[in-house]
Automatic annotation (TrEMBL):
The gene is tyrS. This is Tyrosine--tRNA ligase. Keywords: Aminoacyl-tRNA synthetase, ATP-binding, Cytoplasm, Ligase, Nucleotide-binding, Protein biosynthesis, RNA-binding. GO terms for molecular function: ATP binding; RNA binding; tyrosine-tRNA ligase activity. Pfam families: SYY_C-terminal (PF22421), tRNA-synt_1b (PF00579). Homodimer. HAMAP family: Tyr_tRNA_synth_type1. Its EC number is 6.1.1.1. Residues 385-447 form the RNA-binding S4 domain. NCBIfam families: tyrS (TIGR00234). The lineage of its organism: Bacteria, Bacillati, Actinomycetota, Actinomycetes, Micrococcales. ATP binds at K266.
Protein backbone atom coordinates (compact mmCIF):
# COMPACT_ATOMS: atom_id res chain seq x y z
CA UNK A 1 0.00 0.00 0.00
CA UNK A 2 1.45 3.37 -0.92
CA UNK A 3 2.24 5.73 1.88
CA UNK A 4 2.30 9.51 1.63
CA UNK A 5 5.95 10.59 1.49
CA UNK A 6 7.68 7.37 0.57
CA UNK A 7 9.88 7.28 -2.49
CA UNK A 8 8.64 5.95 -5.81
CA UNK A 9 9.10 2.20 -6.02
CA UNK A 10 8.96 1.71 -2.26
CA UNK A 11 7.18 -1.49 -1.25
CA UNK A 12 4.96 -1.57 1.82
CA UNK A 13 3.01 -4.51 3.19
CA UNK A 14 0.41 -5.11 5.84
CA UNK A 15 1.22 -7.78 8.36
CA UNK A 16 -0.15 -9.18 11.55
CA UNK A 17 1.67 -9.73 14.78
CA UNK A 18 3.39 -12.90 15.84
CA UNK A 19 1.05 -15.35 17.56
CA UNK A 20 2.43 -17.84 20.05
CA UNK A 21 -0.55 -20.16 19.50
CA UNK A 22 -1.17 -20.73 15.78
CA UNK A 23 -4.74 -20.46 14.56
CA UNK A 24 -6.39 -23.83 14.01
CA UNK A 25 -7.54 -24.07 10.42
CA UNK A 26 -11.22 -24.62 9.71
CA UNK A 27 -12.12 -28.18 8.70
CA UNK A 28 -13.94 -28.66 5.42
CA UNK A 29 -17.60 -29.10 6.35
CA UNK A 30 -21.11 -27.92 5.71
CA UNK A 31 -22.52 -25.53 8.30
CA UNK A 32 -25.25 -27.25 10.30
CA UNK A 33 -26.73 -23.90 11.32
CA UNK A 34 -28.49 -23.90 7.93
CA UNK A 35 -31.56 -25.97 7.11
CA UNK A 36 -30.20 -27.03 3.71
CA UNK A 37 -27.16 -26.78 1.50
CA UNK A 38 -29.10 -24.38 -0.74
CA UNK A 39 -29.60 -22.04 2.22
CA UNK A 40 -25.87 -22.11 2.97
CA UNK A 41 -24.94 -21.47 -0.67
CA UNK A 42 -27.32 -18.51 -0.76
CA UNK A 43 -25.92 -17.05 2.46
CA UNK A 44 -22.41 -17.38 1.10
CA UNK A 45 -23.46 -15.50 -2.03
CA UNK A 46 -22.80 -18.41 -4.37
CA UNK A 47 -26.15 -18.44 -6.17
CA UNK A 48 -27.07 -15.39 -8.23
CA UNK A 49 -29.20 -17.08 -10.91
CA UNK A 50 -30.89 -20.48 -11.12
CA UNK A 51 -33.41 -22.35 -13.21
CA UNK A 52 -35.89 -23.44 -10.52
CA UNK A 53 -34.41 -23.12 -7.07
CA UNK A 54 -37.37 -24.74 -5.29
CA UNK A 55 -37.18 -27.79 -7.55
CA UNK A 56 -33.40 -27.96 -7.03
CA UNK A 57 -33.84 -27.65 -3.28
CA UNK A 58 -36.21 -30.62 -3.35
CA UNK A 59 -33.88 -32.67 -5.56
CA UNK A 60 -30.93 -32.02 -3.25
CA UNK A 61 -33.05 -32.90 -0.21
CA UNK A 62 -33.98 -36.21 -1.82
CA UNK A 63 -30.40 -36.67 -3.17
CA UNK A 64 -27.81 -37.53 -3.95
CA UNK A 65 -27.65 -35.33 -7.06
CA UNK A 66 -25.01 -35.80 -9.73
CA UNK A 67 -23.67 -32.42 -10.80
CA UNK A 68 -20.83 -30.93 -12.80
CA UNK A 69 -18.84 -27.87 -13.73
CA UNK A 70 -16.66 -27.44 -16.79
CA UNK A 71 -13.08 -26.14 -16.85
CA UNK A 72 -11.57 -25.30 -20.22
CA UNK A 73 -7.78 -25.72 -20.56
CA UNK A 74 -7.10 -22.31 -22.12
CA UNK A 75 -4.06 -21.82 -19.86
CA UNK A 76 -1.71 -24.01 -17.86
CA UNK A 77 -3.40 -23.27 -14.53
CA UNK A 78 -6.71 -22.37 -12.98
CA UNK A 79 -7.09 -18.99 -11.27
CA UNK A 80 -9.22 -17.48 -8.50
CA UNK A 81 -12.34 -17.32 -10.64
CA UNK A 82 -12.15 -21.09 -11.03
CA UNK A 83 -11.57 -21.48 -7.30
CA UNK A 84 -15.08 -20.15 -6.68
CA UNK A 85 -16.49 -23.05 -8.69
CA UNK A 86 -14.18 -25.62 -7.11
CA UNK A 87 -15.38 -24.61 -3.67
CA UNK A 88 -19.00 -24.66 -4.81
CA UNK A 89 -18.45 -28.22 -6.08
CA UNK A 90 -16.79 -29.16 -2.80
CA UNK A 91 -19.63 -27.80 -0.67
CA UNK A 92 -22.18 -29.77 -2.68
CA UNK A 93 -20.00 -32.86 -2.33
CA UNK A 94 -19.77 -32.43 1.45
CA UNK A 95 -23.58 -32.38 1.47
CA UNK A 96 -23.55 -35.91 0.01
CA UNK A 97 -23.86 -35.20 -3.72
CA UNK A 98 -21.68 -36.64 -6.49
CA UNK A 99 -19.38 -34.23 -8.39
CA UNK A 100 -18.18 -34.41 -11.97
CA UNK A 101 -15.43 -32.11 -13.19
CA UNK A 102 -15.39 -31.73 -16.94
CA UNK A 103 -12.01 -30.77 -18.38
CA UNK A 104 -12.73 -29.42 -21.85
CA UNK A 105 -10.27 -31.13 -24.13
CA UNK A 106 -12.65 -30.32 -26.99
CA UNK A 107 -13.99 -26.90 -26.03
CA UNK A 108 -10.48 -25.87 -25.00
CA UNK A 109 -9.48 -26.17 -28.65
CA UNK A 110 -12.03 -23.45 -29.48
CA UNK A 111 -12.45 -21.27 -26.40
CA UNK A 112 -15.48 -19.48 -25.07
CA UNK A 113 -16.02 -16.16 -26.90
CA UNK A 114 -14.20 -13.19 -25.40
CA UNK A 115 -16.07 -9.88 -25.19
CA UNK A 116 -14.02 -7.99 -27.79
CA UNK A 117 -11.71 -10.17 -29.88
CA UNK A 118 -11.26 -13.63 -31.36
CA UNK A 119 -9.17 -16.06 -29.35
CA UNK A 120 -5.85 -17.31 -30.62
CA UNK A 121 -6.31 -21.03 -31.09
CA UNK A 122 -3.80 -23.14 -29.18
CA UNK A 123 -2.22 -26.23 -30.69
CA UNK A 124 -3.68 -29.64 -30.00
CA UNK A 125 -0.51 -30.69 -28.17
CA UNK A 126 -0.61 -27.59 -25.98
CA UNK A 127 -4.26 -28.12 -25.07
CA UNK A 128 -3.60 -31.80 -24.32
CA UNK A 129 -0.80 -30.80 -21.94
CA UNK A 130 -3.04 -28.28 -20.21
CA UNK A 131 -5.82 -30.88 -19.89
CA UNK A 132 -3.49 -32.98 -17.74
CA UNK A 133 -2.51 -30.02 -15.57
CA UNK A 134 -6.09 -28.85 -15.04
CA UNK A 135 -7.23 -32.41 -14.30
CA UNK A 136 -4.56 -32.68 -11.59
CA UNK A 137 -5.47 -29.31 -10.09
CA UNK A 138 -9.19 -30.04 -9.97
CA UNK A 139 -8.60 -33.44 -8.40
CA UNK A 140 -6.78 -31.84 -5.49
CA UNK A 141 -9.87 -30.00 -4.27
CA UNK A 142 -12.47 -32.77 -4.34
CA UNK A 143 -12.44 -36.09 -2.54
CA UNK A 144 -11.90 -39.12 -4.76
CA UNK A 145 -13.00 -41.83 -2.32
CA UNK A 146 -16.33 -43.07 -1.08
CA UNK A 147 -19.79 -43.17 -2.62
CA UNK A 148 -19.66 -39.52 -3.69
CA UNK A 149 -16.11 -39.51 -5.05
CA UNK A 150 -15.10 -37.08 -7.78
CA UNK A 151 -15.38 -38.15 -11.41
CA UNK A 152 -13.21 -36.30 -13.94
CA UNK A 153 -14.27 -36.44 -17.59
CA UNK A 154 -13.00 -34.98 -20.86
CA UNK A 155 -15.51 -33.78 -23.45
CA UNK A 156 -13.08 -34.70 -26.22
CA UNK A 157 -14.18 -38.31 -25.63
CA UNK A 158 -17.63 -37.67 -27.10
CA UNK A 159 -16.93 -34.63 -29.26
CA UNK A 160 -14.01 -36.00 -31.32
CA UNK A 161 -16.10 -38.83 -32.89
CA UNK A 162 -18.91 -36.39 -33.79
CA UNK A 163 -19.06 -35.78 -37.56
CA UNK A 164 -20.10 -32.47 -39.07
CA UNK A 165 -23.31 -34.08 -40.35
CA UNK A 166 -24.12 -35.49 -36.90
CA UNK A 167 -23.35 -32.12 -35.33
CA UNK A 168 -25.81 -30.35 -37.62
CA UNK A 169 -28.54 -33.04 -37.65
CA UNK A 170 -28.50 -34.15 -34.02
CA UNK A 171 -27.56 -30.90 -32.27
CA UNK A 172 -27.79 -27.90 -34.56
CA UNK A 173 -31.47 -28.43 -35.36
CA UNK A 174 -32.39 -27.80 -31.70
CA UNK A 175 -30.88 -24.31 -31.59
CA UNK A 176 -32.51 -21.12 -32.88
CA UNK A 177 -30.10 -18.58 -34.34
CA UNK A 178 -32.07 -15.65 -32.91
CA UNK A 179 -31.66 -16.96 -29.37
CA UNK A 180 -27.97 -17.67 -29.93
CA UNK A 181 -27.38 -14.15 -31.24
CA UNK A 182 -29.09 -12.64 -28.21
CA UNK A 183 -26.68 -14.20 -25.72
CA UNK A 184 -24.55 -11.55 -24.08
CA UNK A 185 -21.10 -12.84 -25.09
CA UNK A 186 -22.18 -13.18 -28.71
CA UNK A 187 -24.02 -9.85 -28.77
CA UNK A 188 -20.93 -8.02 -27.46
CA UNK A 189 -18.79 -9.52 -30.16
CA UNK A 190 -21.29 -8.64 -32.88
CA UNK A 191 -21.14 -5.02 -31.71
CA UNK A 192 -17.34 -5.03 -31.80
CA UNK A 193 -15.15 -4.35 -34.81
CA UNK A 194 -13.79 -7.91 -34.64
CA UNK A 195 -17.15 -9.59 -35.05
CA UNK A 196 -17.33 -13.31 -34.25
CA UNK A 197 -16.34 -16.43 -36.17
CA UNK A 198 -18.57 -19.45 -36.56
CA UNK A 199 -15.98 -21.37 -34.53
CA UNK A 200 -16.60 -19.36 -31.37
CA UNK A 201 -20.28 -18.92 -32.20
CA UNK A 202 -20.67 -22.72 -32.06
CA UNK A 203 -19.15 -22.98 -28.58
CA UNK A 204 -22.53 -22.75 -26.87
CA UNK A 205 -23.78 -25.79 -28.80
CA UNK A 206 -20.79 -27.85 -27.73
CA UNK A 207 -21.24 -26.88 -24.07
CA UNK A 208 -24.94 -27.72 -24.23
CA UNK A 209 -24.05 -31.10 -25.68
CA UNK A 210 -21.71 -31.71 -22.74
CA UNK A 211 -24.65 -31.49 -20.36
CA UNK A 212 -26.72 -33.77 -22.59
CA UNK A 213 -23.95 -36.36 -22.76
CA UNK A 214 -23.37 -36.32 -19.02
CA UNK A 215 -27.10 -36.67 -18.42
CA UNK A 216 -27.25 -39.68 -20.75
CA UNK A 217 -24.03 -41.34 -19.63
CA UNK A 218 -23.94 -40.55 -15.91
CA UNK A 219 -27.34 -39.24 -14.87
CA UNK A 220 -25.99 -35.73 -14.18
CA UNK A 221 -28.87 -33.30 -13.57
CA UNK A 222 -27.18 -30.11 -12.33
CA UNK A 223 -24.59 -27.83 -13.92
CA UNK A 224 -22.84 -25.00 -12.09
CA UNK A 225 -20.83 -22.14 -13.51
CA UNK A 226 -20.16 -18.45 -13.39
CA UNK A 227 -22.97 -16.00 -14.00
CA UNK A 228 -21.24 -14.92 -17.22
CA UNK A 229 -21.81 -18.49 -18.47
CA UNK A 230 -25.54 -18.40 -17.82
CA UNK A 231 -26.54 -18.45 -21.48
CA UNK A 232 -24.46 -21.57 -22.03
CA UNK A 233 -25.77 -23.24 -18.88
CA UNK A 234 -29.38 -22.63 -19.89
CA UNK A 235 -28.56 -23.90 -23.39
CA UNK A 236 -27.79 -27.30 -21.90
CA UNK A 237 -30.96 -27.29 -19.83
CA UNK A 238 -33.05 -26.45 -22.91
CA UNK A 239 -31.32 -29.07 -25.06
CA UNK A 240 -32.04 -31.84 -22.55
CA UNK A 241 -35.65 -30.71 -22.26
CA UNK A 242 -36.09 -30.84 -26.04
CA UNK A 243 -34.25 -34.12 -26.63
CA UNK A 244 -35.05 -36.11 -23.48
CA UNK A 245 -38.25 -34.33 -22.32
CA UNK A 246 -36.96 -34.00 -18.75
CA UNK A 247 -36.13 -31.06 -16.54
CA UNK A 248 -32.61 -30.53 -15.21
CA UNK A 249 -31.04 -27.74 -13.19
CA UNK A 250 -28.44 -24.99 -13.45
CA UNK A 251 -27.11 -22.46 -10.98
CA UNK A 252 -24.83 -19.53 -11.71
CA UNK A 253 -22.48 -17.87 -9.23
CA UNK A 254 -21.91 -14.13 -9.30
CA UNK A 255 -18.69 -12.81 -10.74
CA UNK A 256 -16.64 -11.65 -7.78
CA UNK A 257 -15.76 -7.96 -7.88
CA UNK A 258 -14.22 -5.60 -5.38
CA UNK A 259 -16.38 -3.07 -3.56
CA UNK A 260 -15.05 -0.31 -5.83
CA UNK A 261 -16.24 -2.21 -8.91
CA UNK A 262 -12.82 -3.37 -10.08
CA UNK A 263 -12.25 -6.92 -11.23
CA UNK A 264 -11.40 -9.35 -8.46
CA UNK A 265 -8.33 -11.56 -8.69
CA UNK A 266 -6.20 -9.18 -10.69
CA UNK A 267 -2.90 -7.78 -9.48
CA UNK A 268 -1.30 -5.17 -11.71
CA UNK A 269 -3.08 -6.74 -14.67
CA UNK A 270 -2.06 -10.33 -13.91
CA UNK A 271 -4.34 -13.12 -12.76
CA UNK A 272 -3.78 -14.74 -9.38
CA UNK A 273 -3.09 -18.36 -10.29
CA UNK A 274 -3.39 -21.41 -8.06
CA UNK A 275 -0.19 -22.88 -9.54
CA UNK A 276 2.68 -21.98 -7.16
CA UNK A 277 5.04 -21.66 -10.13
CA UNK A 278 2.88 -18.83 -11.52
CA UNK A 279 1.84 -17.15 -8.27
CA UNK A 280 4.07 -18.02 -5.33
CA UNK A 281 2.46 -18.97 -2.00
CA UNK A 282 3.90 -15.78 -0.50
CA UNK A 283 2.44 -13.55 -3.22
CA UNK A 284 -0.83 -15.47 -2.94
CA UNK A 285 -0.95 -14.87 0.82
CA UNK A 286 -0.16 -11.18 0.41
CA UNK A 287 -2.97 -10.80 -2.12
CA UNK A 288 -5.51 -11.96 0.44
CA UNK A 289 -3.87 -10.10 3.31
CA UNK A 290 -4.38 -6.83 1.45
CA UNK A 291 -8.13 -7.34 1.07
CA UNK A 292 -10.06 -4.16 1.85
CA UNK A 293 -12.29 -4.03 4.93
CA UNK A 294 -15.33 -3.56 2.68
CA UNK A 295 -14.63 -6.87 0.89
CA UNK A 296 -13.19 -9.18 3.50
CA UNK A 297 -16.41 -10.59 4.99
CA UNK A 298 -17.78 -11.57 1.59
CA UNK A 299 -14.45 -13.18 0.74
CA UNK A 300 -14.59 -15.21 3.95
CA UNK A 301 -18.03 -16.49 2.99
CA UNK A 302 -17.02 -17.56 -0.51
CA UNK A 303 -13.46 -18.81 -0.06
CA UNK A 304 -13.32 -20.38 3.41
CA UNK A 305 -15.08 -23.13 5.35
CA UNK A 306 -15.48 -20.97 8.43
CA UNK A 307 -18.97 -21.25 9.90
CA UNK A 308 -21.55 -18.49 9.89
CA UNK A 309 -20.88 -17.85 13.59
CA UNK A 310 -17.12 -17.59 13.03
CA UNK A 311 -17.54 -15.22 10.10
CA UNK A 312 -20.01 -13.06 12.02
CA UNK A 313 -17.47 -12.73 14.83
CA UNK A 314 -14.78 -11.67 12.36
CA UNK A 315 -17.26 -9.20 10.84
CA UNK A 316 -17.72 -7.71 14.30
CA UNK A 317 -13.97 -7.30 14.64
CA UNK A 318 -13.78 -5.57 11.25
CA UNK A 319 -16.43 -3.10 12.41
CA UNK A 320 -15.05 -2.50 15.90
CA UNK A 321 -11.28 -3.15 15.57
CA UNK A 322 -10.36 -2.79 11.91
CA UNK A 323 -6.76 -1.85 12.73
CA UNK A 324 -6.13 -5.41 13.97
CA UNK A 325 -6.97 -6.82 10.52
CA UNK A 326 -7.96 -10.11 12.12
CA UNK A 327 -10.36 -10.98 9.31
CA UNK A 328 -7.73 -10.39 6.63
CA UNK A 329 -5.14 -12.48 8.42
CA UNK A 330 -7.60 -15.33 8.89
CA UNK A 331 -8.74 -15.11 5.27
CA UNK A 332 -5.16 -15.14 3.97
CA UNK A 333 -4.20 -18.11 6.15
CA UNK A 334 -7.28 -20.18 5.30
CA UNK A 335 -7.15 -19.71 1.53
CA UNK A 336 -3.38 -20.11 1.29
CA UNK A 337 -3.61 -23.35 3.27
CA UNK A 338 -6.46 -24.54 1.06
CA UNK A 339 -4.53 -23.92 -2.16
CA UNK A 340 -0.91 -24.53 -1.14
CA UNK A 341 -1.16 -26.64 2.00
CA UNK A 342 -0.86 -25.87 5.70
CA UNK A 343 2.94 -26.05 5.82
CA UNK A 344 3.34 -23.49 3.04
CA UNK A 345 0.71 -21.27 4.65
CA UNK A 346 2.44 -21.33 8.04
CA UNK A 347 5.78 -20.64 6.35
CA UNK A 348 4.51 -17.56 4.55
CA UNK A 349 2.91 -16.23 7.74
CA UNK A 350 6.28 -16.51 9.48
CA UNK A 351 8.00 -14.88 6.51
CA UNK A 352 5.48 -12.03 6.43
CA UNK A 353 6.07 -11.38 10.11
CA UNK A 354 9.87 -11.75 9.94
CA UNK A 355 10.21 -9.24 7.11
CA UNK A 356 8.94 -6.57 9.45
CA UNK A 357 11.17 -7.49 12.38
CA UNK A 358 8.84 -9.93 14.16
CA UNK A 359 10.89 -13.06 13.60
CA UNK A 360 14.27 -14.54 12.69
CA UNK A 361 14.90 -14.25 8.96
CA UNK A 362 17.58 -16.93 9.05
CA UNK A 363 15.15 -19.42 10.57
CA UNK A 364 12.78 -19.16 7.61
CA UNK A 365 12.37 -21.80 4.97
CA UNK A 366 14.80 -20.62 2.23
CA UNK A 367 12.31 -21.12 -0.59
CA UNK A 368 9.66 -19.05 1.19
CA UNK A 369 12.20 -16.36 2.04
CA UNK A 370 13.15 -16.19 -1.62
CA UNK A 371 9.50 -15.87 -2.65
CA UNK A 372 9.00 -13.05 -0.16
CA UNK A 373 12.05 -11.09 -1.30
CA UNK A 374 11.10 -11.59 -4.95
CA UNK A 375 7.91 -9.61 -4.27
CA UNK A 376 9.85 -6.57 -3.12
CA UNK A 377 11.50 -3.86 -5.20
CA UNK A 378 15.16 -4.66 -5.38
CA UNK A 379 18.53 -4.49 -7.02
CA UNK A 380 21.74 -6.43 -7.40
CA UNK A 381 24.85 -5.70 -5.38
CA UNK A 382 28.24 -7.08 -4.43
CA UNK A 383 29.98 -7.56 -1.13
CA UNK A 384 31.72 -4.32 -0.17
CA UNK A 385 29.15 -2.04 -1.85
CA UNK A 386 28.10 0.94 0.30
CA UNK A 387 24.72 0.26 1.90
CA UNK A 388 23.66 3.85 1.21
CA UNK A 389 24.19 3.39 -2.52
CA UNK A 390 22.44 0.01 -2.56
CA UNK A 391 19.49 1.51 -0.69
CA UNK A 392 19.22 4.27 -3.29
CA UNK A 393 19.45 1.74 -6.12
CA UNK A 394 16.39 -0.10 -4.80
CA UNK A 395 14.26 3.06 -5.02
CA UNK A 396 13.47 3.05 -1.31
CA UNK A 397 15.09 6.52 -1.15
CA UNK A 398 15.59 9.07 -3.90
CA UNK A 399 19.35 9.51 -3.63
CA UNK A 400 22.52 8.34 -1.92
CA UNK A 401 22.59 11.48 0.20
CA UNK A 402 19.05 10.79 1.43
CA UNK A 403 20.10 7.22 2.20
CA UNK A 404 23.08 8.43 4.21
CA UNK A 405 20.86 10.77 6.23
CA UNK A 406 18.35 7.98 6.90
CA UNK A 407 21.15 5.69 8.09
CA UNK A 408 22.60 8.39 10.34
CA UNK A 409 19.17 8.94 11.88
CA UNK A 410 18.86 5.25 12.76
CA UNK A 411 16.04 4.54 10.34
CA UNK A 412 17.65 1.87 8.16
CA UNK A 413 17.90 -1.85 8.87
CA UNK A 414 19.78 -4.67 7.18
CA UNK A 415 18.14 -8.03 7.91
CA UNK A 416 16.22 -6.31 10.75
CA UNK A 417 19.45 -5.06 12.38
CA UNK A 418 19.77 -1.29 12.59
CA UNK A 419 22.64 0.27 10.66
CA UNK A 420 23.93 3.58 12.02
CA UNK A 421 27.16 4.16 10.09
CA UNK A 422 26.55 6.00 6.80
CA UNK A 423 29.81 4.50 5.51
CA UNK A 424 28.76 0.90 6.22
CA UNK A 425 29.16 -1.65 3.43
CA UNK A 426 27.63 -5.02 2.67
CA UNK A 427 29.56 -7.88 4.20
CA UNK A 428 29.21 -11.67 4.12
CA UNK A 429 27.56 -11.84 7.57
CA UNK A 430 24.60 -9.87 6.19
CA UNK A 431 23.82 -12.33 3.41
CA UNK A 432 20.81 -14.56 4.05
CA UNK A 433 20.34 -18.07 2.62
CA UNK A 434 19.94 -17.86 -1.12
CA UNK A 435 22.31 -14.92 -1.46
CA UNK A 436 19.82 -12.25 -0.40
CA UNK A 437 19.82 -9.22 1.88
CA UNK A 438 16.72 -7.50 3.26
CA UNK A 439 16.81 -3.71 3.51
CA UNK A 440 14.19 -1.83 5.51
CA UNK A 441 13.63 1.86 6.01
CA UNK A 442 11.44 2.60 9.00
CA UNK A 443 8.83 0.05 9.94
CA UNK A 444 7.21 -0.88 6.62
CA UNK A 445 9.29 0.11 3.59
CA UNK A 446 11.17 -2.92 2.30
CA UNK A 447 13.51 -3.91 -0.51
CA UNK A 448 15.40 -7.06 -1.46
CA UNK A 449 18.99 -7.26 -2.69
CA UNK A 450 20.62 -10.08 -4.62
CA UNK A 451 24.27 -10.33 -3.71
CA UNK A 452 26.62 -11.57 -6.39
CA UNK A 453 30.25 -12.55 -6.29
Amino acid sequence: MPRGREAPGAQTRRTGTVTENPIELAPQRIDDSFDSIVDELQWRGLISVSTDLDALRQALAEGPVRYYCGFDPTAGSLHLGHLVQLLLLRRLQLAGNIPYALVGGATGLIGDPRPTAERTLNSRDQVAEWVVRIRDQVSGYLGDEGENALHVVDNLDWTAPLSAIDFLRDLGKHFRVGQMLAKEAVAKRLRSEAGISYTEFSYQILQANDFLQLYRREGVTLQTGGQDQWGNLVGGVDLIRRVEQVGVHAIGSPLITNSDGTKFGKSEGNAIWIDPELTSPYAFYQFWLNTEDADVVERLKVFTFLTRAEIEELARQVAEEPYRRAAQRRLALEVTALVHGETAARNVVRASEALFGDGDLRALDPATLGQALDELPGTGAALGDPIARVLADTGVVRSVSEARRAIGQGGVYVDNVRVTDPEATLDADMVLPGGRVLLRRGRRTLAGVRVGD
